[in-house]
Amino acid sequence: MWDIFISALPKLLEAMVKYTIPLTLLSFTFGIIIAVIVALIKFLNPKVSGIVSILWKLLRLLASFYVWVFRSTPLLVQLFIIFFGLPAIGVKLPAFTAAVIGFSLNTGAYASETIRSALLSVNKDQWDAAYTLGFSTPQTLWKIIMPQAFRIVLPPLSNEFIGLVKDTSLASTITIAEMFQISQQYAAQNYEPLLMYVEVAALYAMLCTILSVLQRYLEKKSSRYMKGDEN
Protein backbone atom coordinates (compact mmCIF):
# COMPACT_ATOMS: atom_id res chain seq x y z
CA MET A 1 0.00 0.00 0.00
CA TRP A 2 2.74 2.44 0.94
CA ASP A 3 4.56 1.62 -2.27
CA ILE A 4 1.57 2.98 -4.17
CA PHE A 5 1.52 6.08 -1.96
CA ILE A 6 5.22 6.77 -2.56
CA SER A 7 5.13 5.98 -6.28
CA ALA A 8 2.18 8.37 -6.83
CA LEU A 9 3.77 11.27 -4.93
CA PRO A 10 6.19 12.46 -7.68
CA LYS A 11 3.38 12.53 -10.26
CA LEU A 12 1.10 14.41 -7.89
CA LEU A 13 3.81 16.95 -7.10
CA GLU A 14 4.53 17.33 -10.81
CA ALA A 15 0.84 18.01 -11.45
CA MET A 16 0.85 20.54 -8.61
CA VAL A 17 3.79 22.45 -10.07
CA LYS A 18 2.70 22.12 -13.69
CA TYR A 19 -1.02 22.80 -13.39
CA THR A 20 -2.45 23.50 -9.91
CA ILE A 21 -0.11 26.34 -8.89
CA PRO A 22 0.07 28.09 -12.31
CA LEU A 23 -3.70 27.77 -12.74
CA THR A 24 -4.27 29.31 -9.31
CA LEU A 25 -1.80 32.17 -9.78
CA LEU A 26 -2.95 33.11 -13.28
CA SER A 27 -6.65 32.87 -12.45
CA PHE A 28 -6.30 34.90 -9.26
CA THR A 29 -4.19 37.59 -10.96
CA PHE A 30 -6.64 38.03 -13.83
CA GLY A 31 -9.57 37.70 -11.43
CA ILE A 32 -8.29 40.54 -9.22
CA ILE A 33 -7.73 42.77 -12.25
CA ILE A 34 -11.32 42.13 -13.33
CA ALA A 35 -12.55 42.61 -9.76
CA VAL A 36 -10.86 45.99 -9.32
CA ILE A 37 -12.27 47.28 -12.62
CA VAL A 38 -15.78 46.05 -11.85
CA ALA A 39 -15.64 47.32 -8.25
CA LEU A 40 -14.56 50.79 -9.37
CA ILE A 41 -17.28 50.91 -12.02
CA LYS A 42 -19.91 50.09 -9.39
CA PHE A 43 -18.32 52.24 -6.68
CA LEU A 44 -17.56 55.49 -8.51
CA ASN A 45 -20.33 57.91 -9.35
CA PRO A 46 -18.67 60.56 -11.54
CA LYS A 47 -20.43 63.85 -12.16
CA VAL A 48 -21.06 63.49 -15.87
CA SER A 49 -24.00 64.36 -18.09
CA GLY A 50 -25.40 63.68 -21.53
CA ILE A 51 -24.23 60.67 -23.49
CA VAL A 52 -21.37 60.02 -21.06
CA SER A 53 -23.85 59.65 -18.22
CA ILE A 54 -25.91 57.18 -20.24
CA LEU A 55 -22.83 55.16 -21.19
CA TRP A 56 -21.67 55.07 -17.56
CA LYS A 57 -25.07 53.79 -16.42
CA LEU A 58 -24.96 51.10 -19.09
CA LEU A 59 -21.46 50.14 -17.97
CA ARG A 60 -22.62 49.84 -14.36
CA LEU A 61 -25.59 47.78 -15.48
CA LEU A 62 -23.28 45.47 -17.44
CA ALA A 63 -20.95 45.13 -14.44
CA SER A 64 -23.88 44.27 -12.17
CA PHE A 65 -25.16 41.72 -14.69
CA TYR A 66 -21.74 40.07 -14.89
CA VAL A 67 -21.51 39.79 -11.10
CA TRP A 68 -25.05 38.41 -10.91
CA VAL A 69 -24.43 35.76 -13.56
CA PHE A 70 -21.21 34.39 -12.06
CA ARG A 71 -22.40 34.55 -8.45
CA SER A 72 -25.71 32.87 -9.31
CA THR A 73 -24.40 29.85 -11.22
CA PRO A 74 -22.12 26.97 -10.13
CA LEU A 75 -18.45 27.20 -11.04
CA LEU A 76 -18.57 23.70 -12.52
CA VAL A 77 -21.37 24.71 -14.88
CA GLN A 78 -19.40 27.81 -15.92
CA LEU A 79 -16.39 25.65 -16.78
CA PHE A 80 -18.54 23.28 -18.79
CA ILE A 81 -20.12 26.14 -20.74
CA ILE A 82 -16.73 27.63 -21.59
CA PHE A 83 -14.99 24.36 -22.51
CA PHE A 84 -17.78 22.12 -23.82
CA GLY A 85 -20.45 24.67 -24.73
CA LEU A 86 -18.61 27.38 -26.66
CA PRO A 87 -17.38 25.00 -29.42
CA ALA A 88 -21.05 24.78 -30.49
CA ILE A 89 -20.77 28.40 -31.67
CA GLY A 90 -17.29 27.97 -33.12
CA VAL A 91 -15.21 29.01 -30.09
CA LYS A 92 -12.90 26.14 -29.16
CA LEU A 93 -10.40 26.79 -26.39
CA PRO A 94 -7.55 24.68 -24.99
CA ALA A 95 -8.47 23.14 -21.65
CA PHE A 96 -5.97 25.19 -19.65
CA THR A 97 -7.09 28.46 -21.28
CA ALA A 98 -10.74 27.60 -20.66
CA ALA A 99 -9.98 26.87 -17.02
CA VAL A 100 -8.10 30.15 -16.53
CA ILE A 101 -10.97 32.08 -18.12
CA GLY A 102 -13.58 30.29 -16.01
CA PHE A 103 -11.74 30.63 -12.71
CA SER A 104 -10.78 34.25 -13.45
CA LEU A 105 -14.33 35.33 -14.26
CA ASN A 106 -15.70 33.54 -11.22
CA THR A 107 -13.06 34.99 -8.91
CA GLY A 108 -13.54 38.46 -10.40
CA ALA A 109 -17.28 38.39 -9.69
CA TYR A 110 -16.89 37.45 -6.03
CA ALA A 111 -13.81 39.56 -5.35
CA SER A 112 -15.38 42.66 -6.96
CA GLU A 113 -18.06 42.75 -4.29
CA THR A 114 -15.45 42.28 -1.58
CA ILE A 115 -13.38 45.15 -2.95
CA ARG A 116 -16.43 47.38 -3.42
CA SER A 117 -17.47 46.76 0.20
CA ALA A 118 -13.97 47.66 1.38
CA LEU A 119 -14.05 50.91 -0.61
CA LEU A 120 -17.45 51.77 0.84
CA SER A 121 -16.18 51.13 4.37
CA VAL A 122 -13.62 53.95 4.14
CA ASN A 123 -15.02 57.05 5.84
CA LYS A 124 -16.40 59.60 3.39
CA ASP A 125 -14.60 62.34 5.34
CA GLN A 126 -11.40 61.04 3.76
CA TRP A 127 -12.67 62.20 0.37
CA ASP A 128 -13.58 65.66 1.68
CA ALA A 129 -10.20 66.05 3.38
CA ALA A 130 -8.38 65.02 0.22
CA TYR A 131 -10.35 67.44 -1.95
CA THR A 132 -9.60 70.21 0.55
CA LEU A 133 -5.90 69.51 0.09
CA GLY A 134 -6.29 69.78 -3.67
CA PHE A 135 -6.25 66.08 -4.55
CA SER A 136 -8.09 64.98 -7.68
CA THR A 137 -10.47 61.99 -7.60
CA PRO A 138 -7.89 59.57 -9.08
CA GLN A 139 -5.22 60.83 -6.64
CA THR A 140 -7.58 60.48 -3.70
CA LEU A 141 -8.57 56.99 -4.76
CA TRP A 142 -5.02 55.78 -5.36
CA LYS A 143 -3.14 57.50 -2.51
CA ILE A 144 -5.72 57.62 0.27
CA ILE A 145 -8.73 55.35 -0.24
CA MET A 146 -7.11 52.28 -1.81
CA PRO A 147 -4.37 51.86 0.85
CA GLN A 148 -7.00 51.90 3.59
CA ALA A 149 -9.29 49.57 1.65
CA PHE A 150 -6.39 47.18 1.03
CA ARG A 151 -5.97 46.52 4.75
CA ILE A 152 -9.69 45.77 5.02
CA VAL A 153 -9.87 43.61 1.91
CA LEU A 154 -6.72 41.55 2.52
CA PRO A 155 -8.25 38.81 4.76
CA PRO A 156 -11.27 38.05 2.54
CA LEU A 157 -9.19 38.14 -0.64
CA SER A 158 -6.67 35.81 0.97
CA ASN A 159 -9.53 33.45 1.74
CA GLU A 160 -10.63 33.73 -1.90
CA PHE A 161 -7.13 32.74 -2.99
CA ILE A 162 -7.04 29.74 -0.68
CA GLY A 163 -10.48 28.73 -1.88
CA LEU A 164 -9.31 28.99 -5.47
CA VAL A 165 -6.48 26.53 -4.78
CA LYS A 166 -9.08 23.95 -3.78
CA ASP A 167 -11.43 24.87 -6.63
CA THR A 168 -8.74 24.06 -9.20
CA SER A 169 -9.59 20.40 -8.57
CA LEU A 170 -12.66 21.06 -10.75
CA ALA A 171 -10.28 21.52 -13.70
CA SER A 172 -10.05 17.73 -13.80
CA THR A 173 -13.57 17.69 -15.23
CA ILE A 174 -12.39 19.47 -18.39
CA THR A 175 -9.46 17.09 -18.99
CA ILE A 176 -6.68 18.99 -17.20
CA ALA A 177 -4.27 16.56 -15.54
CA GLU A 178 -3.98 18.45 -12.27
CA MET A 179 -3.51 16.76 -8.91
CA PHE A 180 -7.03 15.45 -8.45
CA GLN A 181 -7.19 13.86 -11.90
CA ILE A 182 -3.81 12.18 -11.35
CA SER A 183 -5.10 10.78 -8.06
CA GLN A 184 -8.19 9.46 -9.87
CA GLN A 185 -5.99 7.76 -12.45
CA TYR A 186 -3.90 6.05 -9.76
CA ALA A 187 -7.04 5.05 -7.86
CA ALA A 188 -8.43 3.41 -11.01
CA GLN A 189 -5.16 1.60 -11.72
CA ASN A 190 -4.41 0.37 -8.19
CA TYR A 191 -7.92 0.07 -6.69
CA GLU A 192 -6.89 2.22 -3.72
CA PRO A 193 -9.28 5.19 -3.91
CA LEU A 194 -9.13 5.99 -0.20
CA LEU A 195 -5.33 6.08 -0.16
CA MET A 196 -5.09 8.21 -3.31
CA TYR A 197 -7.75 10.70 -2.27
CA VAL A 198 -6.28 11.07 1.20
CA GLU A 199 -2.86 11.68 -0.36
CA VAL A 200 -4.11 14.39 -2.71
CA ALA A 201 -6.15 15.91 0.13
CA ALA A 202 -2.97 16.10 2.20
CA LEU A 203 -1.19 17.95 -0.62
CA TYR A 204 -4.04 20.45 -0.93
CA ALA A 205 -3.98 20.88 2.86
CA MET A 206 -0.23 21.50 2.75
CA LEU A 207 -0.63 24.20 0.11
CA CYS A 208 -3.48 25.88 1.97
CA THR A 209 -1.59 25.78 5.26
CA ILE A 210 1.40 27.54 3.70
CA LEU A 211 -0.93 30.17 2.24
CA SER A 212 -2.67 30.63 5.60
CA VAL A 213 0.68 31.31 7.28
CA LEU A 214 1.51 33.82 4.54
CA GLN A 215 -1.92 35.40 4.98
CA ARG A 216 -1.33 35.97 8.69
CA TYR A 217 2.08 37.48 7.94
CA LEU A 218 0.62 39.90 5.39
CA GLU A 219 -2.20 40.87 7.73
CA LYS A 220 0.32 41.60 10.46
CA LYS A 221 2.47 43.70 8.12
CA SER A 222 -0.50 45.63 6.75
CA SER A 223 -1.72 46.44 10.27
CA ARG A 224 1.59 47.63 11.67
CA TYR A 225 0.53 51.27 11.39
CA MET A 226 -2.55 50.63 13.49
CA LYS A 227 -0.67 49.72 16.66
CA GLY A 228 -1.06 53.18 18.04
CA ASP A 229 -4.83 53.00 17.57
CA GLU A 230 -5.08 49.84 19.63
CA ASN A 231 -3.81 51.52 22.81
Automatic annotation (TrEMBL):
Subcellular location, record wording: Cell membrane
InterPro entries linked to this entry: AA_ABC_transptr_permease_3TM (IPR010065), ArtM/GltK/GlnP/TcyL/YhdX-like (IPR043429), MetI-like (IPR000515), MetI-like_sf (IPR035906)
Main location: membrane
Protein's membrane topology: Multi-pass membrane protein
Molecular function per GO: L-cystine transmembrane transporter activity
Keyword vocabulary terms for this entry: Amino-acid transport, Cell membrane, Membrane, Transmembrane, Transmembrane helix, Transport
GO cellular component: ATP-binding cassette (ABC) transporter complex
All residue ranges annotated as the ABC transmembrane type-1 domain in the record: 17-215
Transmembrane stretches, start-end: 21-44, 50-69, 76-103, 194-214
Signal peptide (UniProt feature, chain positions): none
Domain of life: Bacteria
NCBIfam families: HEQRo_perm_3TM
Family indicated by similarity: Belongs to the binding-protein-dependent transport system permease family.
Name the record gives this protein: L-cystine transport system permease protein tcyB
Species for this entry: Fructilactobacillus sanfranciscensis (strain TMW 1.1304) (Lactobacillus sanfranciscensis)
